Amino acid sequence: MKSLNKKVSKVVSALAVAIALVGCDSGGGGSNAALALAGLGNSYQATVVMGGKLRIAAASTVFPSVGYVTNKPAYVKLTGSSLTSGGTDFTVGSSTGADAADFNITFKTNSASGKLHGEVFAISDAYYTSTVVPVGAKCSAGSACDSASVYTELVGSFDMNYVIDTSSPTSTAQLTFSNLLGDLSPSTVAGVSSTLYVDLVNVITTVAGVYSNPNATVGEALCDAIGTPAIKQGTISADQVWGKYTLLRGTVVVNNNATITIPKGAVIYGERGSSLFFNGASLVTQGTAAEPVCFTSAQARGSRFPGDWGGVIFIGNGNGTRTSGTTEGTTPLTYPGSNPSNITLRYTIVEFAGNEVAPGDELNSLSQYQVNSATYRFVQAHRGLDDSFEWWGGGLSPSTFDGAYLIGSGAMDDDFDMDEGFSGTLKYLISVKYPAGCGGSVSTDPHGFEMDGVHASSSFAGCAPGANGTHDCSNPTVSNYTAVGFNFANSFGERHREGLQGSFSQGILWNFSRNIVCDSTSGYPAVNSSISNVHSDNSKTDCMNSTTCGGTASGTAPTCAASLLDLSALPVADLGSVQDANFCGHGTKPDFTTSASVASGATGGAPVGGTTDSIVGSVTEKWWSGWAVWRAH
Asked: The pTM is what?
């Protein structure tokens, strides 16, 4: 059932893209295997998303003594021989008449051009004048106004011609209206005569077999680019500067203190089963907002999904609570390594990574094992099968892991996972969950933040900061973050456990099954995180009030001040279409600007009015805008 309070400006403006094949020439292609496109299927099918408003020419009047505008709540229905599905919508607004004429219609057609007939039905006056239900309640959310059965009066009609233009899928010129007839005025208002008009606001068209991502960001256009790549496979032991297009084949390991430099605007494709390890080696990406760097899947544009390839893995020789561990992956390596791994990432996207090696053993989009020295600025991990970012140790002062302006979007497990002694600094973070219907398999506990202090209860049990030198338990400094969940079962905004220390401030948590859980697990050191000014969903019970995170029992958090359980509505400006399972981010893009309703001082992941960064200089409030990617496939 659709919401009754629709906004035309937020019409979902795109559909999941149709299939087009991105293949890799693995047979005799040499070092340059072309990435080719091939459409699949011969039957034509176009999908049209249209948004607009029904209007009348008469002066505004109200219907009986409440706030309904002259244009009655209506039911719009399209018919025609070329229509294969869809084509209806209700225009119901609130009981005060807001948006009472807005419509959102999606329909599919088997013809590139044609004519459909539209009919507009109104609710009978008898329904409104009935005393059975108060008038003001008749069109509230969940009422009969979202049921076609109450629309019994034919009050208008029109013809709509369509011509699908794949070169301009958002052009409103694809739809034209004629033969508009009708009167949307309430018949009980004497002397009012009006004519039906259709004001078209938004149009998006997609055609099966033709790749299309309307309103693509710079990052989406780059990541969807098709080029002729150089193949990288096996071991790399010397410095390299990679070109515009690169294809990863199998497990690629960079070692021997080598540095890989990737220029702005470069695209790295990962084949199935591929991954990129930096084992005591370094990576420098030189992306910009206008030309980011993209690591993406080599699968079909439009049919790329979480787990298509392995992701990027860094192994250093920094601090951690393990003296010897084994990474995840088809070819696991031991950590810590014998050499440092230094990382400098700028405007870098890693998407559709995290292939499953074995049940419970999935690589992440970005994995950092005991990496002490790194600076991340404007880095997005998108649609990974496991975690977006995961750290195993690293970041202990004076060499620190310094991450800012990071996005974890659409991961199937955690967005930010800090384990085994990670003590870096992270600031201005955004995470958002996608519906399961957008593809991939959601984990049993898809958290925003999952954080452990130590890998085992018997390891460095003291766990006090500074007590054990390089083996301190996790003690990160995390500030200014916004995490938006999808209310999946057993999903926490933050999970603090197993000796975690840490400082967490200026956070915003929304729509997880629980907000903050402090898990004082038996046999592990006590959790002792400091949490300050973290605002959360008031429909949940867990949060913190400028105190330490030390629950009285496993999986609990102390009762917190009501002032921090103060979020009653989406705390960001707009999620676009990322959480609509029909569209999954194709078309309308999100805006994570913190809503004015959020308490003063809790800026979350968007620096109000912008800020200045010591490394990159001036940063705008909407720092993600334009370069980040949001389409789910």
From this structure: 0.79
